[in-house]
Automatic annotation (TrEMBL):
<keyword id="KW-0031">Aminopeptidase</keyword>
<keyword id="KW-0378">Hydrolase</keyword>
<keyword id="KW-0482">Metalloprotease</keyword>
<dbReference type="InterPro" id="IPR024601">
    <property type="entry name" value="Peptidase_M1_pepN_C"/>
</dbReference>
<feature type="domain" description="Peptidase M1 membrane alanine aminopeptidase">
    <location>
        <begin position="227"/>
        <end position="438"/>
    </location>
</feature>
<feature type="domain" description="Peptidase M1 alanyl aminopeptidase C-terminal">
    <location>
        <begin position="553"/>
        <end position="876"/>
    </location>
</feature>
<dbReference type="InterPro" id="IPR045357">
    <property type="entry name" value="Aminopeptidase_N-like_N"/>
</dbReference>
<dbReference type="Pfam" id="PF17900">
    <property type="entry name" value="Peptidase_M1_N"/>
</dbReference>
<dbReference type="InterPro" id="IPR001930">
    <property type="entry name" value="Peptidase_M1"/>
</dbReference>
<feature type="domain" description="Aminopeptidase N-like N-terminal">
    <location>
        <begin position="62"/>
        <end position="188"/>
    </location>
</feature>
<protein>
    <recommendedName>
        <fullName>Aminopeptidase N</fullName>
        <ecNumber>3.4.11.2</ecNumber>
    </recommendedName>
</protein>
<dbReference type="Pfam" id="PF11940">
    <property type="entry name" value="DUF3458"/>
</dbReference>
<comment type="similarity">
    <text>Belongs to the peptidase M1 family.</text>
</comment>
<keyword id="KW-0862">Zinc</keyword>
<dbReference type="Pfam" id="PF17432">
    <property type="entry name" value="DUF3458_C"/>
</dbReference>
<dbReference type="InterPro" id="IPR012779">
    <property type="entry name" value="Peptidase_M1_pepN"/>
</dbReference>
<keyword id="KW-0645">Protease</keyword>
Amino acid sequence: GQIFRLEDYKPSAYLIPGIALDFALDADETLVTARLRVERAENAPDNAPLELDGDALTLEALRINGADAPVSSYEATPDKLTIRKLPEEREFELTIVTRVLPSSNTTLMGLYVSSGVFCTQCEAEGFRRITYFLDRPDILSVYTVRMEADRKAAPLLLSNGNPVESGALENGRHFAVWHDPFPKPSYLFALVAGDLGVVTDSFTTASGREVSLGIYVEHGKEERAAYAMDALKRSMRWDEERFGREYDLDVFNIVAVSDFNMGAMENKGLNVFNDKYVLADAETATDVDFANIEAIIAHEYFHNWTGNRITCRDWFQLCLKEGLTVFRDHEFSADERSRAVKRIGEVRALRAHQFPEDQGPLAHPVRPRRYREINNFYTATVYEKGSEVVRMLRTILGEEAFRAGMDLYFERHDGQAVTIEDFLKAFEDASGRDLTQFALWYHQAGTPNVALSSRYDAEAKTLTVEIEQSVPPTPSESRKRLMHIPLAFGLVGPEGEDLAYESAEGAVVENGVIHLRKRRHTIVFKGVNARPVFSVNRGFSAPVTLCSEGRTADRLFLARHDSDPFSRWQALTTLFTDTLIAASKAVRGGKEPAFADDLVQLGLDLAADATLEEAFRALVLTLPSEADVAREIGHDIDPDAIHTARRALLETIARAGRETFGDLYEGLHDNAPFSPDARSAGRRALRNTLLEYLVLGEGTPQAARRQFDDADNMTERAGALTILAQYFHDTEDGRAALAAFEERYRDTPLVLDKWLQIQAMIPSEGAVSLVRSLMEHPHFSLANPNRVRALIGTFSMANQTAFHSADGEGYRLVADTVLALDGQNPQVAARLATAFRSWRSLDKGRREHARALLADMAGRENLSRDLADILERTLA
Ligand code: HT7
Ligand code: ZN
């Protein structure tokens, strides 16, 4: 297949400043008439052919300046329209009529039908499934969209921008016209037509502009959109206050659809959402769902400035909008909720999703230099590591200079399609700093390792810290350059206070941050009056792997006393991880795992410490996952041994904490009506975490059964069901709870997804056959990405022992599903296949099974470009 390379970027020879689209909507066959105002670019040759992108298109008619184009003047295939004979003038009009088939479009890209609603998804390259176009983000056009449809089936007709006109037509049809005055790339085009319910509200911007807000959902689900509306208004205010960014159209609409390849899409003025990230109430959504909705509503809204007003020059620059917008949504959630708890969640997610990417065959820089299929680059590296890079930029520049850089970026590039270089230049110009070395974070793949040791000289009152960086090789990048790594730190004194020092020599140290720029630094802190414990990478200031000298006593101390809550959590997590690695080794060697009393006691003390937030205490009691431990072991992994070791630690803590946990659990109960706020969510999180220990300590399901029966909200009901399913799935209690849940939510698909998810995680011998049987359940469908992700996605990511089952049957289940799905929805199939990305780090038997299946899949005929690309890179 063709490989696209960053260095091959060329500005287009033609521009399309305006487009008028006309849709005659019909589910079986829709006619699209596109009138393009085309302009030959300044220095393009007169005779340059015009090559327009298409995908699965049928051309019905082509007119140039209103006259039918002679057949000899162009060539049309489903994926390209080449026009060789064009008018002499620099400006002309092209009319293109295409025929598309919405109801048989199973890819969920371009124009498709979801539960009877016409909708579109154009990012990255879906617009070319609607009409032939220069489908690249640096072609910015003003859109006018006219739609007509059957009035009964589609009373609602929406597109980008502001509504202009609407009216009745003959034969029970009607029309509407929308105009978007902001020039935009084709990937931001959207249309929705159908019969939906709506929640409306309004927002007055800082400068007094009145904006009508609408959230469209299936009839009868309007009440479940109230939280999303609230999150939207809070996001709009926050972007004004924190970044000085106002909304710019008269309307802002959100539509929830049930078949969607990703989370949501930021189309200008018309966001389209996976309904999972809109619909929520106490009965159907967990606190995690509420938090996700808040974050994704904010994320898509924030794209209006970072992505839409300023967009990407080409798809290599994807992180320009995604990394920056994730950073913005992280900051929003941190301001709305608990900053420390939010940060710990972000770091856990980064390690769970991005670190394995960076450490495996699919590693790529935050700004990749090549791709075969851009859909495969909507990755944790582009999004999450991209956000970490922006965070480091802020750490390096400081809040004020960072904001000045953002302001300059908005001012300089509003209305343009730009690059990462343009972005960084705005910060260099605003701050006067040189970011050349820092820019490597965008260009170089791999998670840097930072090794660290320290010694205190009591007589000289000096603390000497040795730090060394190295970046491991990644595919096609064997030699790495030295990075600029900002490490926030503190010298923690005997009482837990941060000790002062007189000077620091050997590296640039400013405002509590060490700027590591060379391979090795020896930093001498002078005038340190007592032996400190060195606390480093506070707040996870840099996305690195830290290898420090492993003094257990120091970690125990930091977990109890560090002034940075992230570092407290990190110290404890490192201790738990190390002990689980040792215990897994013991299990593999046929020995009993053993755990230090002081570590167990530390966990109990922190969990019971009423001065700490409940959400933080819940995190303290959440052990590293089996996948976390596997990743830290890194090679020759035996998931069964890790599972046994982790279960043993859970039981040890459960036994030690039996009484404390019971009292804590009871004390956290409150009779107040459900509220999704962060504080209440934290209490529920801690209760659910304690419940697992209670059940394990008692060895009976009673406590979980009670919570399941008494719960008045989904967080507690699903929490209890998860525990019953994990530990009692083959008992009457487990079976009865699963059946009751299924019955209660038989008509609520998003909740039945939780039922699938909970069962997909059960680590039993029968897991593979259970999942195969759930694929036959009437609720399951390969055509719906939420169903596939809930069952097969969860199985492959969160059921380590079953997915990696030693007989290879877990791999076979996922491979079968990937192949079955590929013909219908290549994007989702390819994403599912990334579950195999860490196959080389497994033990020999599992490695062999995985390799054989990957090779078998890669050898099939007619694979999609999406899947072929993932398989080829995974095997390389
Ligand atoms: N920018 C959006 C990306 C997206 C997408 C990409 C490929 C295929 C389907 C898609 N749906 C949405 C989402 C975002 O980052 O906001
Ligand atoms: Zn985004």
